[in-house]
Design a protein that fits this description.
548 residues; alpha/beta; globular; receptor
């Protein structure tokens, strides 16, 4: 955390039991204290459960891979499960719990206007609440009940009361009646139904199901037919979701009829499934250009998105559960239009919206299939775009030679700014081991040049063609010379041919690799850990700032 807690702590360490999802939190002044608190945690949970700790899954942070930590686990037979680099999904339970805790704690402090120094109290409260809240992982129990085997007694809400103290004399309320006092009501939420039978038992869900079914029927999505011989029959399923307002009150009960797409057979029920998705770089380019040109930005949502396009394939599904026809119970439904869950549904919708845009005078970008252009005349941190006279595409490339302790491969990093802020960035481990820092920087520069070409073409499509060549800054002189000239052949002849594409781009006048000082290399933030001051300095140069 950027701000120290009231007790002077800057970090929190969260342990989660994989089975029960019970969590324990400790607050640290330094990351190096992790080992000390792990020993306390081990003693606590073994005493509570009467069982020995057998497995510990963490990332490869230095606080978890010290010699003392490893020796302690080895001596006590604790099996370590270290996740691979750049794969946080291997420790999804811990990663998701950390994010949930931070987001809830931040919301609590923001809602009550509390100073950031109360973050530790917020985190402790969130962990307490989550331990007493139902979870899908543990059926019909809270993590507390799954861990201890009994319900909390007393009920477990006594710590949530507000603490007050009296500084003034008390005036009896009967002498000063207050009209229109604020009141609150207790709302109980039992969770979303997980079966049709459970939903049909409640009026609000029956209404929601009927509304969704009526919308599908108005759209003429299907027709009742007999199932032809040899055709695959796909089942349907109801999905239920309760939507809430910002104050926590229930907004509506949403029911959606979906297809069990995993039962479809390729070549019979569908052919092509690919549907393009907008890249974040494209969105940021549009935001940068919109800021420069002072365009208005609008955002909208299309209801029943996948139910608007005619299907080309013959797809047969069962009748909706609990809404079968009384007169034709043996009939099946032939889909005229797509339903949610169909593998080809996204592609069908893309075809529909693509046709709509073309009929309305939009042109699709040749380089970005989700960008349509119509020419008419002439979370704590974000990217701040502002209008500037120097609206040019600029690039930075850097490499951390042999930075990976696991396989000695280097990390390539590059970023591009347009105007006042960054629009594209990448940090990726190289595919092969570089034999020198020059080779590592050269490979990174080659990747950056390819990205520069794509960005230049997108800018041309939106009316901001980069007439001048795009300059890419590199802090390795040898790599710059290697890109400009055929030198060091004996030491670089093994480099893959594809990386020499940068030489062609330089010769054609599209990009130019220029040397810069290391302290001017903005892409440094993408390849290695930096001191806090340096990190904040570079992110500021990228146009990244707090949203306050």
């Amino acid at each position: 955390m950027k701000t120290e807690s009231l007790a002077g702590n800057k970090y929190f360490l969260l342990f989660t039991d994989d089975f029960s999802r019970m969590s324990w939190v400790y607050f640290l002044r330094q990351k190096s204290e992790s080992f000390k608190y792990f020993r306390k945690f081990k003693a606590l949970v073994e005493k509570q459960s009467g069982k020995a700790l057998k497995f510990l899954r963490t990332d490869r942070g230095g606080e978890f891979t010290s010699k003392d930590f490893d020796a302690f686990c080895d001596e006590r037979g604790i099996r370590r499960q270290l996740t691979a680099s750049y794969t946080p999904e291997q420790n999804g339970v811990a990663e998701r719990k950390n994010r949930t805790v931070v987001e809830m704690a931040r919301s609590m402090l923001k809602q009550k206007g509390m100073p950031d120094s109360f973050w530790a109290e917020g985190v402790a409260t969130v962990v307490y609440i989550l331990n007493l809240s139902p979870t899908k992982v543990v059926w019909n129990e809270t993590p507390y009940e799954a861990w201890f085997g009994n319900k909390p007694s007393p009920p477990g809400i006594e710590n949530l009361k507000r603490t007050t103290r009296s500084e003034h004399g008390h005036v009896p309320r009967r002498r000063f009646p207050i009209e229109g006092e604020d009141t609150s009501s207790l709302v109980m939420f039992a969770g979303d139904p997980i079966s049709v039978n459970e939903a049909m038992a409640k009026e609000e869900w029956r209404v929601a199901m009927q509304e969704d079914l009526s919308a599908i029927q108005r759209n003429q999505t299907w027709e009742l037919v007999d199932l032809p011989n040899g055709k695959n029959l796909i089942t349907l399923k109801w999905i239920f979701k309760t939507k809430f307002l910002a104050d926590g009150s229930i907004q509506k009960h949403k029911a959606r009829l979906v297809v069990r797409g995993f039962t479809q057979q390729k070549g019979i029920d569908y052919e092509e499934t690919f549907s393009p998705v907008a890249r974040f770089e494209t969105v940021r380019i549009i935001l940068a250009v919109a800021t420069q040109e002072q365009w208005k930005i609008h955002q909208f949502d299309v209801k029943l998105t996948f139910l608007n396009e005619e299907l080309k394939e013959e797809v047969y599904v069962t009748q909706p559960p609990s809404f079968e026809s009384n007169t034709k119970p043996n009939k099946v439904l032939r889909l005229r239009k797509a339903l949610y869950g169909l593998k080809q549904a996204p592609r069908a919708w893309y075809s529909k919206i693509d046709d709509f845009f073309h009929k309305n005078g939009f042109e699709k970008s040749q380089h970005e299939p989700t960008l349509y252009i119509k020419r008419q005349g002439t979370q704590d941190y974000g990217i701040w775009f502002s209008k500037t006279e120097d609206f040019r595409l600029k690039g930075y490339t850097d490499s951390d030679w042999a930075g990976s302790v696991d396989d000695m491969r280097s990390t390539s990093g590059n970023c591009f700014t347009l105007g006042t802020a960054v629009i594209s960035w990448s940090s990726k481990k190289q595919a092969s081991v570089a034999l020198s820092s020059t080779e590592a920087e050269y490979v990174a520069a080659a990747a950056a040049s390819c990205q520069a070409v794509w960005l230049r073409r997108i800018l041309k499509d939106v009316g901001h063609e980069q007439v001048k060549l795009t300059i890419i800054k590199c802090d390795n002189k040898s790599a710059v010379l290697l890109a400009r000239n055929l030198i060091y052949h004996g030491r670089t002849k093994h480099i893959e041919i594809k990386h020499h594409y940068i030489r062609e781009l330089i010769a054609n006048g599209e990009v130019q690799l220029e040397e810069c000082q290391s302290d001017e290399q903005i892409a440094d933030v993408l390849t290695k850990s930096l001191p806090r001051v340096k990190h904040e300095e570079l992110t500021t140069q990228l146009g990244v700032s707090t949203l306050e």
